[in-house]
Structure formats: C-alpha cells, structure tokens
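task queued by scheduler; priority normal; single chain, no ligands, no partner chains; default sampling; output format set to structure tokens
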Amino acid sequence: MESSVFVDTGKGILAGVVGALALALMMFIKDAAGIVPEVSLLHAWMKIAGTDSMVIGWIVFFVINAFVVGAIFAALDAHLERPEGSEELVRGALFGVGLWIVTMMFIVPMGGGGSFGMRYGIALPAAMFLAQVIQGIVMGGVYGALRPEPVPT
C-alpha cells in the first residue's frame, strides 16, 4: 500500500506547479504594467543560480516553486484535519503570507532589493504580497481539489 504522505506530496508538487504558473503570470503582468520595472524576480533567481541565462533562471524558479514549495505545503497540510468548504483556500492564503515573508527576507535581498524590497519603496512589497497570497490560494485550491488525506494521529 502506498503511503498517503508520499501520494499527497505528489499532489502538493502538482499544486506547486500550478501555483508557480500563476506567480509567473503575475510576474509578466507586473512587468507589462511597469510596476517596479527595475526589479525582476527572475533576475534574482538567476543571481541565486549564478548564471546570466534566463532559461536557467526560469528552471530554478519552477523547480523551487513546484518541488520545494509544493512539497512543504503538502507536508504542513498533511498534519491538519481534513478541511471543509473553502478552508483549503484559507490555508493556501496563509501559506502565501509565509512565502511572502521568506521571499522578502531572502530572495529579494539576494536580487539586490534590500530587506523586504524597501530599496524600491512600498510598491514592491505590496505587489509581492498580493502575488504570493494569490499563489498560495491557487495552490490551496488545487491541492484541496486533489483530495489529500490527513496523516492519522
């Protein structure tokens, strides 16, 4: 019999892929709208990967957001009771807030934006907050639709 935790990790990774696609779309919209044009999360991922290649930057972005973020979401969610109604969306939104904190404390500074991106004023942290809460809601919705099982305690 397969472990439900292993199966649910796969569901978390799928939710992470869809969440990463949503975040990538929001990154494109941010750039097209000219919101904090001097900041690119893609360039931050490229710096972290130590490359000038946009392809490698996107690969790192998707690997981290799908495999790492998705697996962490599934691991955290597995230890909670099975949600009812829209509770998985709320869990996703809260997870998005956590992603925002981690991004603003580590990823944005690595990309040159300073702590919480304040080098660029309030627009960057506000836009990132909205984007990552939406990413979390998308992840929660997808994960909940895949019907994960809670870990028996």
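post-processing summary
- Residues 4-145 form one domain.
- The chain has a mean pLDDT of 84.
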